[in-house]
Amino acid sequence: MKFVCKKNDFTNSINIAMKAILTKTTMTTLECFLIEAKDQYVSLTSNDMQLGIETKFPAEVEDEGIILMNAKVLYDFIGHLPEEKVEFESDENNTVLIFSGNARFEHQGLADEEYPRLPKVDFESTINISQFTLKEMIRQTIFSISTKENNKVLTGELFEIRDNELRIASLDLIRVSIRTLKLEENYDKVKVIIPGKTLMEISKVLSSNIEDMVEISFSKNHVKFVFGDTIMISRLIEGNFFNIDQMLKNNYETKIVTNRNAFYGCIDRAALLIKETDKNPVVMTIQDDEMKLEIKSSNSSMNEDIPVQKEGKDLRIGLNPKYIIDVLRVIDDEDINLYFFNSNSPCFIKNEEESYIYLILPINI
């Protein structure tokens, strides 16, 4: 195999493919890229047996071929090459030679026979949405997945398609995050659970350009994302997700509207008083057109008032300030709506269109 390419193209593909490389494994092949030069393109494939990635870049291919090479070694060396032009070649003994300027690098590669290729799957449903939109929907929900492996279902996000609507939801039994997107046409029903790790890695490489699209395809056991010159295929999580609709109440006793920045600033200051391990709630007392926020720690306290527009009854409720901050960080609206039933029921933060809904369970005070 022999090809010449631009260092920047090579580096960009390496950065994408690195997201499915295992660093602690007894399987040497899973620490490697599968590098294939063919048809004036070079493709890099990585596979951690949960997430598989194939990404390619243009190159002047003189001799087609395929080889395995340690991913970290390639990542480190390509990143430190002195010039933009890179020459890559390998021989029948799987010895790799890389040249750039006066630099010459040699490494012993591996034969490709035992490498686990990406699965060939018959996908049943496909949708196309903006990469930026998907990136935002993940950002606005991923923080409330569970980190506890004892309930695998909660370590992923629900992707549900109903007619012309895509809904993404996550929960950790203390809070729920939901984002809904109207699609341009109707689709068959889909209800799958995608691992949180997969979505976090994909969101890192999705474009922020609203015009760049991503194709998402679903099968019984896999999901595939195709964008630009990259394919990502992930296994799905087996099991039944919690019934989100049962958690969503439309009735409320108290509703307030307040400025997001003012609320965020107040909660952020309150959170300074508590340690990571503390469970001290911020106590919100809603009365007339004012909300008083109070918090106490072992040696400090704080209270602050912010103006609100209130409908319904007065209320006093305790909430985890960190969970409120997580929500406020991902909402872009100038004003936000908070809904309460009573001091022992969840707080809902949502907009009028319900394109986003966040639920936070209260803390006893």
Describe this structure in words.
The chain is an alpha+beta fold and 365 residues long. Helices cover 18% and strands 45% of the residues. It has an 8-stranded antiparallel β-sheet with strand order 6-2-3-4-15-14-13-10. Strand 14 and strand 15 form a beta hairpin. The protein is elongated. It starts with a strand and ends in a 5-residue tail after the last strand.
Rg over C-alpha atoms, rounded to the nearest angstrom: 25 Å
Q: How many strands?
A: 24
N-to-C CA distance = 69 Å
Uncertain spans = none
The helical percent reads 10-25%
The outline comes out as: elongated
**Strand order across the largest sheet:** 6-2-3-4-15-14-13-10
If helices are DSSP runs of H or I spanning 4 or more residues, what is the number of helices?
Answer: 7
Q: pLDDT average, as an integer? A: 94
Quick summary:
The protein is of the alpha+beta class. It has helices at residues 7-17, 71-79, 131-139, 196-205, 244-247, 260-271, 321-330; strands at 2-6, 32-38, 41-47, 51-58, 60-63, 65-70, 85-90, 95-100, 103-108, 125-130, 156-171, 175-195, 213-218, 222-227, 230-235, 254-259, 282-287, 290-296, 301-307, 309-312, 315-319, 335-340, 347-350, 356-360. The protein has an eight-stranded antiparallel sheet with strand order 6-2-3-4-15-14-13-10. A seven-stranded antiparallel sheet has the order 11-12-24-23-22-16-20. It has a five-stranded antiparallel sheet with strand order 5-1-7-8-9.
